[in-house]
Amino acid sequence: MAHPDRFLLAGVMGWPVMHSRSPMLHNYWFKQHGLAGSYVPLAIRPEHLTAALRGLHPLGFAGVNVTIPHKQEAMKIVNEHDGSLTGTNNDCYGFIHAVRQEHPGWRPDAGPIVVIGAGGGSRAVCYGLAQEGAKEIRLVNRTLARAKAIAGEFRGPIKALPWEQRHDALEGAAMVVNTTSQGMVGNPALDITLDKLPQGALAADIIYIPLETPFLAAARKRGNRTINGLGMLLNQGRPAWKAWFGIEPEVTVELRAMVERTI
Ligand code: ATR
Fold first, then answer.
1. Which domain holds residue 256?
2. Among 2, 81, 102, 221, whose CB has the most other CB atoms within 10 angstroms?
């Protein structure tokens, strides 16, 4: 076989980074498309982030994903840079496409949507839902000021509510999304009573370790449809690949099963 004319490179920058499932995902796509390339975990200390991002181009990297704790800082570096670095947030795309893929009949305007949490994950989810045409987003957060900041920034359908109202806010909702870290492995469960959530509502979590958080388990047991965070992770990789290699890869059943087996 002739040598390919170049070896494709991409990766994920995090600190720590070895828990990331992204290499498995992207290396599956290299293989699936018969491309010579590799996607590597890059353990980057926060103080080295600027230098690491600047090094991407000379090293021949098509690009990288950035994960905790680099997300916000990376955006700042990209914005302050001379234009040779660009950045996009693919979490929003990942969330919306996962919901559409797993629940094809889903309608963003079917009824009020409750979003719990107001961190980086919430920002992507709220932005996506608002863009898709959600009519009412009830945003509940332990620290009300952070919910108000998102509501103020996006305007439109987002209404910030205090933490005490999280149980009552579920009344009449068509969907509820947990974007807090509660329920993630090592953390206590999200403290919420689902009694007022309508049976027809869709319950989503952006956490994927574990695949079923206590919040999702409680929703499933009372008859609600659920969606875990794995679809968001898998789908956020697609626009990245498209930007780097010009191919929009598929989230196949085989790919999902392969990643699930490692969780
Ligand atoms: P990410 O970028 O992953 O969303 P983050 O910005 O640290 O992470 O946000 C974490 C979210 O989980 C926040 O909404 C946080 O609430 P605060 O804004 O009040 O900090 C929420 N969270 C974390 N621990 C929590 C707890 N014990 N109870 C309720 N919410 C919690």
1. 8-87+237-260
2. 102
